[in-house]
Amino acid sequence: MYATGCTFSSSMTTLTPHDLRCRLSFWKSCGWRLWAEEFVPIKMKLWVKTSMLLCLFGFLKEFRPSEPYLIQYLTGPWLNFTEEKVNQDMLPVGTYSYISCLIVILLITDILRYKPIIVLEGFTGIVVWSLFAWGKDFNHFIAAEAVWGLFAATEVAYFTYIYATVDRQHYQKVTSHIRAAFLLGHSLSAVVAQTLSLLGVMDAHTLTYITAGALSLSTIWAILLPNVKKSIYFHREDKTNSEDSDDRIAVTDTKDVASPVPSKKTFTEKCVIAYKFLKKDFLAAYTNLYVVKWSIWWGLGAGCYLQAYGYNQMVYEVILKESGELETAKYNGAVEAISSLLGAAVAFGCGFLRFDWTRVGDVFLGLGCVAVGVMLYVFAVSESIWLGYSGYSMFVILFNGLITITTAEVARNISEDSYGLIFGVNTLLTLLVQTLITLVVVSSTGLALGPRQQGAVVGNVNENILNTAQNRKH
Asked: Which end of the chain has fewer CB atoms at under 10 Å, N or C?
């Protein structure tokens, strides 16, 4: 008999449910409440379950080992497309499709309550990499790039689904969970790609089969995700009923308490309410000049990053071709893995920085942009593949640090409910910058510059963002 009033057997192998409840009660009475509540897997908390389910989907959808060697596959002996055709005619289609689809996805994700868009992401991923794996004609790969734009646009649902399914008190934890799963999938797939390539087990073509398989699994898993009953704008929860946490169960006597029956709103009424809150959150964010400043850098910096990320393999191929090392072993996978892991470590470390960014933010952004621009320029003009690998890796690592602080500062100065909206608008700004660079610098209707010249131009754009950062006043 313990102070809790419970008695149970001393046998550790024949615990009854009553014994287990009594032991937990005793541990809590002895000050072990944190251990009992957080680490005993008797009934896993709903928000943890949801986070784990979404993280597995994120890991599987990012497990795409064919990506580090996609350009090698397109321009290699399997398909023999010319670098100019891939650079100027194929890859820009993905950019144009991405921005076009994102506008629509941003509008319907909240209406459809996230899960259908996540399932759509899985299905479009299967279509894209099936076309890459089994396509033969150039038009098949143009279609793959067009569908890739939809695949990339639907990713917004992955990052916003969780906010509609857990309480605000868990936002920070679940955000770190889904970001970690995202980076882990990307890094591990790059390691697998590099290992299989070096061992000669698989080549750039057969790696596409693994990618298609992983995306098939992610789609099945997406279908198993819990449905979302509410959303932030179109399906808002009645505030009088939303105070209960998902970790508590309120027991009431339904005979004594009459539950009000909420009236069902028409779709038009929901649209009016959604518009009111969308307008309110949008104006609250973008009438704040401090948020506007960081959002401008977000769009410019991330737009340049996406452009460099999309064309880095083209630069590798040019460097190897000009140096006569085209047939040597390629370490694209290792570079992606190392730069992603180190970038994640830098992003994590940024969380421990304690600066007054309202004072030092402009200087930090300016110096960061110069450093990123220099690394990107070194990458673009390098005649050594190892120097090119190093320049690109440093570019990715520095960018991850800059964008982490940028998103944190934006998030800190907007309401929690508007995260999805504001991050979506800033992503749209990012794609506008990338599309403009593609139209002017890459496409055959523009300057039609080669991969090296593109890298140099994007590097100069990054350095010139310094003037924007210094001239804007918060």
From this structure: N
Query: How long, in residues, is the chain?
Result: 474
pLDDT tens column, 75-101: 889 998 988 889 888 999 999 999 999
Q: Which amino acid would we find at residue 282?
A: F
Question: CA of 248: how far to CAs of 4, 22, 45, 167, in Å?
Answer: 22, 20, 10, 12
Task: Provide the token pair at 311.
Answer: 């064309």
Tokens of 237: 């929860």
Of 248, 382, 400, which is closest to residue 338 (Cα–Cα)? 400
* CA–CA separation, 142 and 387 (whole Å): 32
- pLDDT confidence of residue 244: 41
Nearest residue to 432 (alpha-carbon basis) of 150, 96, 94: 96
Percent of the chain with pLDDT over 70: 80
Give 326 or 100, the one with higher predicted confidence: 100
How would CATH label the architecture of 44-236? Answer: Up-down Bundle (1.20)
Counting Cα atoms < 13 Å in the Cβ hemisphere of 154 gives: 23
pLDDT level of residue 255 (50, 70, 90 thresholds): very low
CA dihedral of residues 296, 409, 178, 432 (deg, nearest 10): 0
Q: CA torsion 177→178→179→181, rounded to 10°? A: 90
Q: How far apart are the first and last CA of the chain?
A: 65
Q: How many CA atoms lie within 13 A of 55 on its CB side?
A: 17
Q: Tokens representing 75?
A: 């321009």
Q: Which class is domain 270-474?
A: mainly alpha
**DSSP for 247-281, written as a single string:** T------TTTSPPP-PPPPPHHHHHHHHHHHHHHH
Q: How confident is the model at residue 47 (pLDDT cuts 50, 70, 90)?
A: confident
CB 281 within 8 A of CB 273: no
Q: Domain-by-domain residue ranges, the chain?
A: 44-236, 270-474
Rounded Cα distance, 223 and 227, in Å: 9
The residue to which tokens 């770190």 are assigned: 176
Residues 6 or more apart whose Cβ sits within 8 Å of residue 206: none
Domains 44-236 and 270-474 share a fold: yes
